[in-house]
Amino acid sequence: MKNKLLEILANKAVTTVFQPIFNVQKKIILGYEALTRGPENTELYSPDKLFYFASQYDLISELEILCRDKAITRFVELKLQGKLFLNISPLVLLSKHHPQGETIKFVQQAGLRCDQIVIELSEKYPVPNDTMLSEALAKYRQFGFDVAIDDLGAGYSGLKLWSQLRPDIVKIDRYFVENCHQDSFKRKFLKAIFDLAQSAKAKVIVEGIETIEEFELLQRLGMVYAQGFYLAKPAIMPIRHYPKYLDADYQYYRQVPQTKRTSLG
């Protein structure tokens, strides 16, 4: 497996797909999250397996640098608009062996600005040193990068991490989104996060939305930014506009019997 990973790194054999993030109130695209896939039809196609084995063989730093380079380059090639969200492991940021300044170099070479990039840190991974992580992120912020906490609620330290890092953006874990229209506790949790974010002047992105029922409930709770398969799936050539099927008027029109549509115009 290590040899396969080394071959992937040597040949830069990863593919970037992009999933749009929408502002559902303004009906525009906020930006795109870059997601990595390994070589097709191989056991390392799945990003979970790819990054797991890279971590096992101490190649996570090299893999993350490759993924960032690919994502930034492809984002520019496709002329995508808005912000580019890059997933970065906290463990990589804290590693003494991880080279500094690589992301800034890639951004500048691509002709982008640092304020177009969002650094996403997953809450799924333990953070062994909060102070060092804050210092590492402060360097990114000095150059204009935004910082996001991904998977809020997936671990045990989410609110503590939020308080310490004061991110520009928080992304709520899929667990609290799934069937939220049928779970009163999840609804209360989501509403509390929206209210807390407003006080903290942070954006909240609700990710993992997969059904119309979840989407409509979240809109009623005050959701502004949304991401998920129901809205748009990750793709090599992602959509570039707000899908009309998310529009409330379109949803209503679709449900009106054919006999009544003529009178509606």
Question: What does this 3D model show about the protein?
Answer:
This protein has 265 residues and is an alpha/beta fold. It has one domain (2-264): EAL domain (TIM Barrel). It has eleven helices and eight strands. Strands 1-2-3-4-5-6-7-8 form an eight-stranded mixed beta barrel, surrounded by four helices. It is globular, with a radius of gyration of 20 Å. It starts with a helix and ends with a helix.
Q: What would you call the shape?
A: globular
Mean pLDDT: 87
C-alpha Rg (nearest Å): 20 Å
Number of domains: 1
Alpha carbon gap, first and last residue = 61 Å
How many strand units? Answer: 8
Characterize this entry briefly.
The protein has 265 residues and is of the alpha/beta class. It has helices at 2-11, 47-56, 60-77, 90-94, 102-110, 130-142, 158-165, 184-200, 212-221, 248-255, 258-264, and strands spanning 15-23, 28-37, 83-88, 117-122, 146-152, 169-172, 203-206, 225-226. The longest helix is centred in the first third of the chain and has 18 residues, at 60-77.
